[in-house]
Write a structure and sequence with these properties.
This protein has 5 helices and 11 strands. By secondary structure, it is α+β, with helices and mostly antiparallel strands. The chain has 2 domains: 161 residues, Sandwich (Jelly Rolls); 47 residues. InterPro entries: ARD, ARD_euk, RmlC-like_jellyroll, RmlC_Cupin_sf.
């Protein structure tokens, strides 16, 4: 059973494997016993995160540096709660549909909190709880969803490279180049972690190796990226 580490980011970001319950999506949905996921483990899925000073985001040099280094030229804010978000019921339902984007999804929580759920290599849901001061980047091509927690409020800074594109592609959209690129990255990481023989025995290897090979032969992936 995983437990929270001493990573200072975990004051504002925590992750764990979800149970299979159909109860209120705003509940934590821990497994029993609880099974935490470290933020370093999340980074192996391409999900990266920071702890920042949400009370001083306008002058925060760390945020400024991240934006400059990663090219996040666009910025706005989104408040999600029944009182502030137009068509709230429709929007919150669409946010919780499993989907991917063809660009990164960058969210910096400056008030409130919420859950970002992402699929791991074996198609299991990991719930990432983002609280005030937590910034998360979901890579292009990752299947994910969002919901509020029981506090029913989040105010998030949205960042983007260039003009924003918020288009969600509900699952299945495995044919998109962003999905191929992410699978290639995850397969590389998995291969490095497990070695060739053990890699073939993992769920990721079994499910995606032949799939990705087929896409390479069709000219849809760069074989040289391996």
């Amino acid at each position: 059973m995983g437990v929270p580490s001493n990573d200072p980011r975990e004051d504002v970001l925590q992750a764990w494997y979800m149970d299979d319950s159909d109860e209120d999506q705003r509940l934590p949905h821990h497994r029993e016993p609880k099974e935490y996921v470290s933020l370093d483990q999340l980074s192996e899925l391409g999900v990266i995160s920071w702890r920042l000073d949400a009370d001083n985001y306008e002058t925060d040099e760390d945020l400024k540096k991240i934006r400059e280094e990663r090219g996040y030229s666009y910025m706005d804010f989104c408040e999600v709660c029944p009182e502030k978000l137009p068509n709230y019921e429709e929007k919150i339902k669409s946010f919780f549909e499993e989907h991917l984007h063809t660009d990164e999804e960058i969210r910096y929580c400056v008030e409130g909190s919420g859950y970002f759920d992402v699929r791991d290599r074996n198609e299991k849901w990991i719930r990432v709880w983002v609280k005030k001061g937590g910034m998360i980047v979901l890579p292009a091509g990752i299947y994910h969803r969002f919901t509020l927690d029981t506090n029913n409020y989040i105010k998030a800074m949205r960042l983007f490279v260039g003009d924003p594109v918020w288009t969600p592609f509900n699952r299945p959209h495995d044919h998109l180049p962003a999905r191929y690129s992410l699978l290639t990255l995850l397969l590389q990481i998995c291969f490095l972690l497990y070695g060739w023989h053990d890699f073939q025995e993992t769920s990721l290897g079994n499910k995606n190796w032949s799939f990705l090979q087929g896409r390479v032969h069709q000219g849809l992936c760069d074989e040289g990226s391996w």
